[in-house]
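Q: Is it fine to ask for two folds in a single conversation?
A: Yes, each is treated on its own. Send the first.
Q: Here.
A: Result:
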Amino acid sequence: MASAVNPIGQSSTVMAGRPLHLHADRFFDSDPAIRNVARALYEETRDLPLVCPHGHVDPSLLAENAPFPEPSALLIIPDHYIFRMLHSQGVRMEDVGVPTRDGSAVETDPRIIWQRVADFWYLFRGTPSGAWLAHELHDVFGVRERLDSDSAQRIYDEIAEKLTSPEFLPRALFEQFRIEMLATTDSAVDSLPHHQKIRSSSWSYGRQRVIPSFRPDTLFRIAQHAAWSKEVRALEVVTSESITSCDALLSALAERRQFFLSMGATATDHGVMEPYTAELSPADAERLFQRALSGEATPADQRQFEAHMLMQMARMSVEDGLVMQLHPGSLRDHNQAMFEHFGPDKGADIPLATEYTRNLRPLLNRFGSNPRFRMVLFTLDESTYSRELAPLAGHYPALRLGPPWWFHDSIEGNRRYREQVSETAGIYNTAGFNDDTRAFCSIPARHDLARRMDANWIGGLVARHIVDMDDARDMARALAVDLARETYRFPTPPA
C-alpha cells in the first residue's frame, strides 16, 4: 500500500493494482423483486442503438477521423464536470491544462495532467462523473485497474497505446458505440464545413449519421453589444444580406434555418436564463433592434427581445418543422474572474429557480396545440417537475419534457425525474434520453446509466403490480430509443 498526499493536504491510501470491476447489477434496487425485473429489462435494452439528438461533440472529430492525441486531451480536457470539481477543492485550472484567454502558461504535459486528476479522483466517489469514467475505462478501453495515484501512469500507457490503433479512431468508436444518429449544436452563422465533409464521405453510406442543430442564442442577446454586433456581421456574411432592421434579421434567420434543414438538421436549440415569452408589435420589436444597433440596448430590452424572438422561432418551427429545444435556468459564468481568465463553459454555470407556467403561456397558447409544432423543454429546477412541467406536458400536445439535464443527469436525478413526472405526464410526453455531452467517449456511459435507472424504475412498477411485464418491455424500449426518434423526427432505420 502507498500513501499519496495531494496539494491541498488530503491524504489518501492507495492500494496498488486494485481491480476495476463494474458489478452487473450496479444502480439496481436491493429489493430482489425489483432488481430481477430491472436486470431483465436492462438486458433487453443495453445493446439497442444509441440515439443522440442533443449534444456538443465537435463535428470535426468525425470529419477528420484523426487519431486522438493522447488520454488527457480525450478524457479530461473536454469534461467540465471534472475540472469544476477539482476547482472546488482548490486545484488550479491551469494545472489541469485548461487554456487561458490571454495565452498565459498552463500545464501542457499530458502525463502530469493525468496524474494530477488521478491524485484527486477520490473526489468523484458517488458522482455520475465517477460512474461515467469507470464505464469508459472498463467498457471502451478494457482497463481493469481502478484509477488512482499508483495506477495512473499504467492506465495512461494502456489507453495511449490503444489510441494508436485503427479500432480507436473516432469513426470506429462511433460504430463500436452503436450510435444511430448524432446531433451536434452549431451557431446559426456556421457554414457547417465539417458536416459537409462527413456527408460527402464514403463513411456516411449515403445516409445521415451526424447532423447539426441550429442555435441562434447570440443573435438575441442585444445587451451584449460587442458579441451581438460581431454575430450580426457574421450573419450578413453568410447570407450576403444587409441586416439593418428586425425584419431583415428574421428573414436571415429563416434562410439559415433552411440551410440547416438542407444539412439534415431536425431541431433548434435555445439557451435562456428564463423561459419568458411575449410577442411584441412590429414597431416595438424594431425599436429594440435599433437600440441594439446603436449599442444602447439594456438588459431589460434584451429580456423583451429574447421573449419576442422565442415566439418568432416557434412560428418558424410551425412553418419549417424544426423541433424547438428550450434550455432555461442557468446563470452563465457565475464566477466572473474565471470567465475573464478562461472564458465560457468552464464549469461555473449555476442553476436558478425557474418559473414556466406564466412565462410560457403566450407561446403555448398560440402554438401549443398546433400539430406542426413540437417543443422539448428542459429544466435545472427540479422543484418544477411535478408542479409545472408534468402538468404542462400532460396537456399541450406540442410539448415534450427533455430528460434530466446537466447537474441532474445522474443516478438519483434520473430516479427523481421519473417519480415526479410520470404519474401526470406519463412517459410518452417525454423525449427519451439525450447525452448532452462534449466528451465523445462518455456517450455510451451516459446512455448505459440512463437505461439502468429507467429499467430500475420500471422494475419497481412491475414489482408493485402497476404494469405487467409486457408493458414494461414496451416502456423500456421507448425510453431507450423510440421516444428520442419520434420526438426529434428521426427516421427509423430498417431492421
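Q: Second one now.
A: Result:
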Amino acid sequence: MQIGKMPTLLHAVIDASGLSRRKAFAAIRDGLVTVDRVTAQDPSSEYEGGVLRLDGRVIEAGAEPRTYLLLNKPPGFMTTMSDEMGRRTVLDLVPPELRSQGLHPVGRLDRDTSGLLLLTNDGDFTYALTHPKHEVEKEYWARLAAPADEAVFAALRRGVEIDGQVRRPLRIGRLRDPRFQVSVTIQEGRNRQVRRLFESAGARVTALRRMREGPLDLGSLPEGAVRRLTGEEVEGLRVLP
C-alpha cells in the first residue's frame, strides 16, 4: 500500500467556508484559522479533521476529513461498496484505516475492466469529475482478440453508431506494449463505452485498463494497491473545466 498526503488545510477552509482560494490563503496566513482552537498558519499543512474555525466562527464541526484515494483496480471486482450477490467489491481492496463514512467510487469501471479508479467521500468532487458537461478525458489501453487493421481505426475515427447516435473516441493510437495494442481516449462515461466502440467497428476487446483520468495517471501503482491523492493532485482535478 502506498499512502500520500492528507487533504491540505487550504482545501479544508475552501470547502467549509466557500471562500476563494486567494481569500482562504490570506485568512490562514493572517492567523484567522484555528483547528481545535490551535492557530494554523501553514496553508499546505495536512488537515486530519477537528473543529475548524474562521475568525472564531465554526465552519467545520469536527466532521470526518475528506478522503481522496487512487486505486489500481484488478479485473473481477465490482465498482460498488457492497454487492447483494456477495461478489468482491473495490471496498475489499481498501485498507480499513483508509475507509471513511460516505466513501464511494468516482464513476465506474465494469467488473472485467482494470486500472485507475478514484474513491472519495466528497460529493462535489465526484460531481465535478463525472458530470457530462465537464468532459473529463479518460485514457484506456485495450487488448483485442485480433490485431486491429486500418479498417477498424478508420471506422472509429469516422464514428460508429451506439444507441442510435454516432460516437467516436477523442483520440486513438497504436501501442508498443506486449499486453495492450491500442490506446483510446474518450470524454464520455457511458456504460461499457470503449468496448462498445470497438464492437461497432468490428473488433472485440479482451482486456481493458484505464490509465488516466484528467491530469492523473496510474503511474507505477501496483494492481490491487491504493494510495491517497496528494494535495496537488486533488487541486489539479478540482480545476478541470
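Q: Anything structural to flag on that second result?
A: Two points. Helices lie at 9-17, 21-29, 123-130, 150-158, 193-200, 231-238. The chain has six helices and 15 strands.
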